[in-house]
């Protein structure tokens, strides 16, 4: 190789490195390096759940204002979007990118780490595959992940060891004349992931469509919240709940999908709960004030999850 060729190659490498650094600076995350979440020095970790935002074209400014206000009041360490974040039926392929940019802006502007799962409407009729939509989310700087199945660990306040875990699953769209379901492959992924973590780390699980245990349970106890509609559950019961009981790490499951339910029940010591519908364009048969669910986890006992609903003008304590 001539000396000139070597110089040209070195020059190209320098240009490539500069391009990569520039992408990171303008707001895109390095997908190879995930940031580590940790408890604050005060020993707390706070999560906000926005669900069923149902943003579309034209944008509903009230929904975005609500998200901004909740974040300003609660100042969470992490935000999870639990599906139907946009309504693909009312977004063209081009509009989808713009609408997603608007719904993640409240977190991006405040430098709050966030993640997302998809619902049945996110990519409905907009020619976006779920994989392409997840890749789009992952381009944002403060997004930690968005995949079919993933988990995010939270370290202790010293940032040395994980002491809390969050599982996110894709509950699908439609199947067999009903709503989608979590597959056996996904349950196997959860099992392997849980087994790979040392010390049975307490966890919370998020997805969009409720499992059948929300509806078909004679032993559940309603602790708090509203049940204003019949649960629209996954079409099949594939055994996720039984596997969770077997593994023993997940303490609570929280979903969205049913726009006027925000209750919490306990079944076999597992909390089954709903977020609070966030989007003003999410259809509902009753006047149901929009809001968000908030979770507070304490370092001294991460298995005990305190949660409440935050609406525009009040905070409703629910469970500890």
Q: What low-confidence regions span 5 or more consecutive residues with pLDDT below 50?
A: 14-31
Beta-strand percent range: 25-35%
Q: Provide the succession of SSEs.
A: HEEHEHEHEEEEEHEEHEEEEEE
DSSP summary, beta strand count: 17
Radius of gyration computed on alpha carbons: 20 Å
What is the strand and helix layout of this fold?
Elements: H1 3-25, E1 37-38, E2 44-50, H2 61-74, E3 78-82, H3 93-110, E4 113-117, H4 130-138, E5 143-145, E6 149-155, E7 162-169, E8 174-175, E9 178-179, H5 184-196, E10 203-206, E11 221-224, H6 240-247, E12 250-255, E13 264-267, E14 270-274, E15 291-298, E16 305-311, E17 315-319
Parallel strand pairs: 1-6, 2-3, 3-4, 4-5, 7-10, 10-12, 12-14
Antiparallel strand pairs: 2-15, 6-7, 8-9, 11-13, 13-14, 15-16, 16-17
Helix pairs in contact: 2-3, 5-6
Give a structural overview.
By secondary structure, the chain is of the alpha/beta class. Helix content is 27%, strand content 26%. The protein contains six helices and 17 strands. The chain has helices at residues 3-25, 61-74, 93-110, 130-138, 184-196, 240-247; strands spanning 37-38, 44-50, 78-82, 113-117, 143-145, 149-155, 162-169, 174-175, 178-179, 203-206, 221-224, 250-255, 264-267, 270-274, 291-298, 305-311, 315-319. It has an eight-stranded mixed β-sheet with strand order 1-6-7-10-12-14-13-11. A hairpin with a 6-residue loop joins strand 6 and strand 7. The radius of gyration is 20 Å and the shape is globular.
């Amino acid at each position: 190789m001539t000396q000139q060729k070597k110089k040209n190659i070195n020059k190209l490498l320098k240009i490539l490195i500069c391009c990569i650094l520039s992408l990171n600076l303008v707001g895109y995350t390095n997908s190879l390096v995930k940031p580590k979440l940790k408890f604050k020095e005060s020993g707390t970790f706070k999560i906000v759940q926005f669900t069923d935002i149902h943003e579309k074209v034209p944008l509903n400014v009230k929904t975005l204002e609500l998200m901004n206000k909740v974040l300003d009041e609660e100042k969470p360490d992490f935000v999870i979007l639990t599906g139907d974040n946009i309504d693909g039926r009312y977004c063209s392929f081009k509009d989808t990118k713009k609408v997603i940019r608007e719904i993640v802006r409240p977190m991006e502007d405040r430098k709050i780490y966030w993640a997302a799962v998809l619902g049945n409407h996110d990519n409905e009729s907009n020619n976006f595959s779920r994989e392409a939509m997840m890749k789009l989310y992952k381009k944002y700087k403060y997004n930690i992940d968005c995949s079919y199945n993933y988990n995010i660990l939270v370290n202790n306040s010293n940032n040395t060891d994980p002491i809390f875990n969050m599982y996110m699953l894709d509950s699908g769209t439609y199947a067999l004349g009903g709503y989608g379901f979590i597959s056996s492959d996904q349950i196997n992924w959860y099992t392997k992931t849980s087994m790979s973590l040392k010390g049975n780390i307490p966890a919370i699980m998020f997805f969009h469509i409720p499992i059948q245990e929300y509806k078909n349970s004679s032993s559940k106890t309603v602790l708090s919240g509203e049940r204003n509609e019949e649960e629209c559950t996954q079409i099949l019961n594939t055994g996720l709940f039984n596997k969770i009981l077997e593994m023993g790490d997940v303490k609570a499951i929280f979903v969205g999908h049913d726009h006027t339910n925000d209750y919490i029940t306990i079944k076999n010591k597992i909390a089954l709960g709903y977020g609070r519908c966030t989007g003003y364009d999410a259809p509902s048969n009753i006047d149901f004030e929009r809001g968000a669910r908030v979770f507070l986890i304490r370092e001294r006992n991460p298995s005990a999850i305190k949660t409440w609903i935050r609406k525009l003008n009040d905070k409703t304590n629910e469970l500890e």
